[in-house]
Automatic annotation (TrEMBL):
<dbReference type="Pfam" id="PF00095">
    <property type="entry name" value="WAP"/>
</dbReference>
<feature type="domain" description="Sushi">
    <location>
        <begin position="307"/>
        <end position="364"/>
    </location>
</feature>
<protein>
    <submittedName>
        <fullName>Protein lev-9</fullName>
    </submittedName>
</protein>
<keyword id="KW-0768">Sushi</keyword>
<feature type="disulfide bond">
    <location>
        <begin position="335"/>
        <end position="362"/>
    </location>
</feature>
<feature type="disulfide bond">
    <location>
        <begin position="395"/>
        <end position="422"/>
    </location>
</feature>
<feature type="domain" description="Sushi">
    <location>
        <begin position="245"/>
        <end position="303"/>
    </location>
</feature>
<keyword id="KW-1015">Disulfide bond</keyword>
<feature type="region of interest" description="Disordered">
    <location>
        <begin position="26"/>
        <end position="76"/>
    </location>
</feature>
<feature type="domain" description="Sushi">
    <location>
        <begin position="111"/>
        <end position="175"/>
    </location>
</feature>
<dbReference type="GO" id="GO:0005576">
    <property type="term" value="C:extracellular region"/>
</dbReference>
<feature type="domain" description="Sushi">
    <location>
        <begin position="552"/>
        <end position="623"/>
    </location>
</feature>
<feature type="domain" description="WAP">
    <location>
        <begin position="64"/>
        <end position="117"/>
    </location>
</feature>
<feature type="compositionally biased region" description="Acidic residues">
    <location>
        <begin position="30"/>
        <end position="46"/>
    </location>
</feature>
<feature type="disulfide bond">
    <location>
        <begin position="146"/>
        <end position="173"/>
    </location>
</feature>
<dbReference type="InterPro" id="IPR051277">
    <property type="entry name" value="SEZ6_CSMD_C4BPB_Regulators"/>
</dbReference>
<dbReference type="InterPro" id="IPR035976">
    <property type="entry name" value="Sushi/SCR/CCP_sf"/>
</dbReference>
Length: 689
C-alpha cells in the first residue's frame, strides 16, 4: 500500500474516534444535566407562576411553590447547621422540572423535589452491634442495636436523605458508660446543631450553639464532650448568652404619646392622641427581629375641628346624600329607579381628610336569563329582563304546566317565581284479557292514539279468572310514563290449600301455576287419593286431590330364644305379647334373657320410628353368669326371723323369688337406658361433624 493511502486511512480512523467520543460526551452531559436540576433551590420565573399568592402568614409569594407548608415547613438555617443540602422547593409533583422527581418531605428542608432512586452510600458494620438496613433509597433507615451490657453512642437510627447522605454520623457501642456524654446542655433562647433524636455523644464531640431568631449572640458558642483524670465524661461549654434585640425608644408624635416601656424583640407600643385630636395611621408598632420598629412610619394626631373632607361626587344614575363634610360626617348613596347600589352604601369622613372605603356605583337591575323551559317556550322575554319586566311561560300542546304561568323581575335582581315544568302526556295502553279506562275525564287523541295529561289515573278491569296484581297502587301518568304498567295476569290463589290432619302444606307462593306439596308428622304416612302427591294453583283455585295422613304402628319384633321382649311404659316395663298390634311411634322396647343367659350380639333395646323398629336386628341370649347381687341384710334378717318363727320352706322360696325378680328388672332397666344414652351421644357427635 502506498504511504499516501496509509495516511488517508489513519486520518479517517482518527475522525471516527473523535466523533464517537463527542457523541458519548454529549449523552453523558445530558444525563448529568437531568440528574443535576433541580437539586439547587432556584426561583422559577416562568409564565405559569406569575400570579402572586398571599399565604396565611401575610406574605405574598410570587411562586406558589415557595409558599410555606404547614405539614412540612422548610428551615434552611437548621438544615445548614446539620450539613444537609436542600433541593428545589415544591408543593406538588408538578412543581418539579423532571418527571423523575417527586415532591416529598425532606426533614429540615421541608417539601423538596427528590429523586426516589438516588442511593445513599453503603454502610460498614460496627463492633459489638447488629445493623438492620431497610434499603439505601430515600426514606430508608438503618438501625443499630448494641450487644447486651454495651451502650449505643451516637444516633441509633439513621435515615437516607434526599441529598444522598445518611443523617448523623456512624455510632459506636461502648461498655463503659463514663466514656461518653449525654444530651448537650440547654441554653435559654438558643439551639444547637445536634439532631434532636440523638441523646448520646462520643468523646471530643462538639456542638455549636445559635441564638433564636430575634436574639443577639454573645460569648463562647462551642460545647465539647471531654473527660479529665478518668472522671465521667461531661460537657464543657458553652458560655453563651442570647439577649433579645433592642429597637430603642420609638419616635414621639406631636399632640400625642406612646404607651409601653418595653423596646426589645416582640414588644409592642401603642400611640394615643390628645383631646380634640384624631389619629391618622396605625396606632401600634412592633419590635422586629432586625432591631427596628414596624411599621416605620409613625401615626399623626390631627385636630378634628380642622378636618374637612372634599364633597363626595354623585355616582352615575344616582346621587350622594350628605349634610356636612366635617370629621365623622356620613354620606349615603341612592340610585334612581331600576338601578341598585353596588359597593358601600355609606361612607365616613376620617381624620386624614378622606372618605372611608371606595365610592359605589349604580348598576341597572337585571334579572337575566330565567332558565330553559323544556317542552315549552317563554313569551315577552325579548322586551327585556330589567326591573318590572314580566315573562309568560307556555307549554307545547297536550303538555301540562306545573308551577306559575308567569314571573316578574324584582328589585333584588331575582325573578319572583322559578321556571315551571312542562310535563308530557301518557299514551293509554291496550291490554290483553282486560280493559283500561280514564278515571277522571275523557282522553284526547294524538295521531289516532289515546293520550291523557300528567296526573291522570287509569282504572284496570280484567276478565274472569284474571286480575291486576298491583290493584292497590294507582296507575298514574307521571311526565310521560305510567307509575305502574297495567296488565291482567292469571288470578292467584287467595289462600293456601286445606291442611290434612296430622300433616302440613308446603307452597313457596300462591301464584298461578305454583304447586303445593304435603307432608305428614312423624308416625304418620301420606295416603294419596289420586295419581299426584301435590295440588296446583290454576286461575285462583287449587286443583287436585288432597291426601290424608294415616297413623302407622310397629309390629311385634319377634321372639328371642332363651329371652323375652319388654315394652317400656310410663310406670315401668311390661312383657310384650304378639297380640299387641298397635305400638305407636317413639315407643321403646328392651330385651331380657332368661336366668343363666346374657345378651350378646345386639342392642339392648329398640325404638318404634315410622312403623319400623330401629335397630331392627334382634339380639341373642347366650349362656353366661349374671352379675353378683348383694344380698340385703334387712331382707336376710327378715327371712331369718321367719325361719325361726317356724315358717315352712315354701314361703321362704316365694320371698326369695320375689326379691330376685325385682332386682333383675331394675338391673335390666338400668342397663337398657345406659346403652340408649350411649347411642344418643354417638348420634349427636356424628351430627355435630
Amino acid at each position: 500500500m502506498k504511504p499516501r493511502g496509509i495516511s488517508l486511512l489513519l486520518l479517517i480512523l482518527c475522525c471516527h474516534a473523535i466523533l464517537s467520543g463527542s457523541t458519548k460526551y454529549q449523552q453523558t452531559s445530558a444525563d448529568d444535566e437531568d440528574d443535576r436540576d433541580e437539586d439547587e433551590d432556584e426561583d422559577d420565573s416562568s409564565e405559569g407562576y406569575q400570579k402572586p399568592e398571599v399565604d396565611d402568614d401575610g406574605r405574598i409569594y410570587k411562586n406558589p411553590r415557595n409558599s410555606p407548608s404547614s405539614m412540612c415547613p422548610r428551615d434552611e438555617e437548621q438544615a445548614d447547621r446539620l450539613n444537609q443540602k436542600c433541593l428545589r422547593k415544591c408543593l406538588t409533583d408538578e412543581d418539579c422540572k423532571s418527571k423523575k422527581k417527586k415532591c416529598r418531605c425532606d426533614g429540615a428542608c421541608g417539601m423538596s423535589c427528590i429523586k426516589p432512586d438516588r442511593e445513599c452510600p453503603e454502610l460498614q458494620e460496627i463492633s459489638y452491634a447488629m445493623m438492620t438496613v431497610t434499603g439505601r433509597f430515600f426514606g430508608d433507615t438503618v438501625q443499630y442495636v448494641c450487644d447486651p451490657s454495651y451502650f449505643a453512642v451516637g444516633l441509633s437510627v439513621r435515615s437516607c436523605r434526599a441529598d444522598g447522605q445518611w443523617t448523623g454520623s456512624t455510632p459506636s457501642c461502648k461498655k463503659d458508660n463514663n466514656t461518653f456524654c449525654g444530651e448537650p446542655p440547654k441554653v435559654t433562647n438558643a439551639r444547637n446543631n445536634a439532631l434532636p433524636e440523638q441523646t448520646t455523644f462520643d468523646l471530643d464531640s462538639t456542638v455549636r450553639y445559635f441564638c433564636n431568631h430575634g436574639y443577639a449572640t454573645d460569648g463562647f458558642l462551642i460545647a465539647k464532650c471531654l473527660t479529665k483524670n478518668k472522671n465521667p465524661a461531661t460537657w464543657f461549654g458553652p458560655d453563651i448568652s442570647c439577649k433579645p434585640k433592642d429597637c430603642g425608644p420609638p419616635t414621639n408624635i406631636a399632640n400625642g404619646w406612646h404607651a409601653g416601656e418595653c423596646y426589645i424583640y416582640n414588644c409592642r407600643v401603642s400611640y394615643h392622641c390628645a383631646q380634640d385630636f384624631e389619629m391618622v395611621g396605625k396606632e401600634e408598632k412592633v419590635c422586629t427581629a432586625d432591631g427596628t420598629w414596624t411599621p416605620k412610619e409613625s401615626p399623626q394626631c390631627v385636630q378634628v375641628s380642622s378636618v374637612q373632607c372634599p364633597p363626595p361626587q354623585n355616582p352615575r344614575n344616582g346621587k350622594a346624600i350628605y349634610t356636612s363634610c366635617a370629621f365623622n360626617a356620613i354620606v349615603s348613596y341612592e340610585c334612581r329607579y331600576g338601578f341598585a347600589v353596588v359597593g358601600d352604601t355609606t361612607r365616613r369622613c376620617l381624620a386624614d381628610k378622606k372618605w372611608s372605603g371606595e365610592p359605589p356605583v349604580c348598576e341597572e337591575i337585571n334579572c337575566g336569563d330565567p332558565g330553559t323551559l323544556y317542552n315549552g317556550w317563554i313569551e315577552n322575554i325579548e322586551s327585556g329582563t330589567g326591573l318590572g319586566a314580566t315573562i309568560i311561560f307556555r307549554c307545547n300542546p297536550h303538555m301540562k304546566l306545573e308551577g306559575n304561568a308567569s314571573s316578574v323581575c324584582q328589585i333584588d335582581g331575582h325573578w319572583r317565581y322559578p321556571v315551571p315544568r312542562c310535563l308530557a302526556p301518557c299514551i293509554v295502553p291496550k291490554i290483553q284479557k282486560g280493559h283500561v279506562s280514564v278515571a277522571t275525564r275523557a282522553d284526547d287523541r294524538i295521531n289516532n292514539v289515546s293520550v291523557v295529561e300528567h296526573g291522570e289515573r287509569l282504572v284496570v278491569d280484567c276478565q274472569t279468572n284474571y286480575e291486576f296484581p298491583s290493584n292497590r297502587t294507582p296507575v298514574e301518568c307521571n311526565n310521560g310514563t305510567w307509575t305502574v304498567i297495567p296488565r291482567c295476569k292469571p288470578a292467584r290463589c287467595k289462600q293456601m290449600p286445606r291442611v290434612p290432619r296430622n300433616g302440613m302444606v308446603i307452597a313457596p307462593k300462591t301464584e298461578h301455576g305454583m304447586r303445593a306439596v304435603f307432608k305428614c308428622k312423624d308416625g304418620f304416612e301420606l295416603i294419596l287419593k289420586g295419581d299426584s302427591h301435590y295440588v296446583q294453583c290454576s286461575f285462583g283455585n287449587w286443583t287436585g286431590e288432597i291426601p290424608y295422613c294415616r297413623e302407622v304402628f310397629c309390629p311385634f319384633p319377634g321372639f328371642i330364644p332363651n329371652g323375652k321382649v319388654l315394652l317400656v311404659g310410663n310406670m315401668g316395663v311390661y312383657d310384650l305379647r304378639p297380640y299387641v298390634k298397635k305400638i305407636v311411634n317413639n315407643k321403646q322396647i328392651m330385651y331380657d334373657c332368661d336366668r343363666g343367659y346374657v345378651l350378646s350380639e345386639g342392642a339392648p333395646g329398640a325404638t318404634c320410628i315410622g312403623g319400623h323398629w330401629s335397630p331392627k336386628e334382634l339380639p341373642k341370649c347366650v349362656l353366661g353368669q349374671h352379675p353378683r347381687l348383694r344380698w340385703s341384710r334387712r331382707k336376710r334378717s327378715l327371712i331369718g326371723k321367719k325361719r325361726k318363727a317356724g315358717h315352712d320352706s315354701w314361703q321362704h322360696n316365694r320371698i326369695k323369688e320375689f326379691f330376685f325378680n325385682k332386682m333383675r328388672k331394675k338391673f335390666l332397666y338400668f342397663k337398657f337406658y345406659s346403652a340408649l344414652n350411649r347411642q344418643h351421644r354417638k348420634l349427636k357427635a356424628v351430627l355435630s361433624l
